Amino acid sequence: MTLTPPPPPVTIDDQSWEGMVVIVSGTSWDDTWLSEKHLALQMSRRVPVLYVDPPVSWLTPLRKPQLSSSVTGPRLRLVRPNLARLTPLSPPGISRPVLRDVANAATRAAIRRGVTRLGGRVHALVVGSLDPFLDACPADLKVLYGTDDWVAGGSLMGISPSWLARREDDQLRRADLVVAVSTTLADRWSSRSRHVSVIANGCDAEAFASSDDVPAAAEVHLPQPIAGFLGHMSARIDLTMLDAVAATGLSLLLVGSRQLTFNLAHMEALLARDNVQWVGPRPFESLPTYMRHVTVGLTPYVDSAFNRSSFPLKTLEYLAAGRPAVVSDLPSARSLPAELVALCADAPAFAAAAVEAAAAAPDPELVRRRKTFAAEHSWAARADDFARLIGLPERSST
Predict the structure, then answer these.
(1) Could you tell me if residue 1 is inside a domain?
(2) How do residues 364-394 score in pLDDT, each as one tens digit?
(3) Is 6 within a domain?
(4) In angstroms, rounded to a whole number, what is the distance separating the alpha carbons of residues 75 and 55?
(5) Within a 10 A sphere around the Cβ of 101, how many other Cβ atoms?
(6) Using omega within 30 degrees of 0 as the cis cutoff, is the peptide bond preceding 288 cis?
C-alpha cells in the first residue's frame, strides 16, 4: 500500500503580502480576544494582515502563563492564509521609562524587519494603543484605533494620566485617520484631529448564536435560572451590582480572568456565596458552552470616565446568544435598542432587572430580534466598515 505524503506546510512565502494591513495591537494574540484580534481575523478575509503583539520578554510567561507560546518558535509566523503574526522581544521591566524606550525602539525595528521579510507594500498601519508605532514602517495610511479612553484608564493601570495625555496628543497629531469605538471618545478627540470616525465594537455573532446547540460546560453546577457575567473582573466592574444580584438568591456564574489586586475582600466575599461560581478564564472558543447555562447576561460597569468612552463587547455577545442583557446605564448602552437591553443606574435596579429577566417566559420573537441585531453588528460588519474607511475595495460576493 502506497502512502501519500502529507502536503508541505503553508508558509509566509506561499502568498503575496502586497497591500497588507498591519495591526499593531495592545493585546497579545494569545491573550483575551479583544477588538484588534477580531478585526484582524475578519480583515484577513479581504486583504493580507500582519498582527503585531505587544513586546514580551522571556519573563512574561511567569506573570501571564497564557502567553508562554509567545516566546517560543519564530518571531514571525503564519497564523492562517492571509494572516501573519509578529511577536517582538524586549528586555524585562518595560514599564520603567528608559527600558520602555528601548522596548519601543526594538518593536519599531521588529515591525520594519517583519514588513520587509513579507515583502509587500503596507496599505494601512493601524495602531491600537498610545505606543509610538505610527512611524514603525512606511505605509500609505496611518490609523489610530481608539479601543478605549487610554488617558482615563491611566489610574487603572498605574500610569500617569498627564504622561498618557502627552502621548495621546502625539498620536492624534501623527495619525492620518482616527477611529474611535464610541461617540463619547470621538467627541473628545475631534478638536485635535481632523479625521475622527466612529466604528463601535462588534461581536462574533455566529459563534454565540450556537450557544443553544453546543453541549453545556460540564463544570457548571449552579441551579437554573443563572445570571452570567462573561468578562474580565477588574476595577471597571461594579461589584455592588453583582453582589446585589447574588443577594436575591439568583445563581450567578462568572467566566473570565480576574485582576488579583482588585478589591480582594469584596471579591472573596462574593465568591464565598453558595449561589456564585467563578470558573476562571476560559478559551474564547469555549465561551458558548458557558453561555448555554446563562439565562440573562450582565454588564455591570462602574460609571467612570473610562467606561463612559467604552463599548462593551459582552453585551452584544449576550444578544447574539439570544439572551436578555442587563447593563449599566452608560452612553454606549443607550445606543442599543431599548427593548433588547435593560439599562440600570444603580445596584438595586440592576438586581431587580436581572431577576425579572430570569423569570420571564421565553419569547422566541424577542430571541430572534436579539440575534438579528447582534448579527448586524458582527465583527464581519465592523471589518467592512473599517475597510471602507481606509479605502479598500469592496469585498467580492462570490
Answers:
(1) no
(2) 999 999 999 999 999 999 999 999 999 997 7
(3) no
(4) 11
(5) 12
(6) no
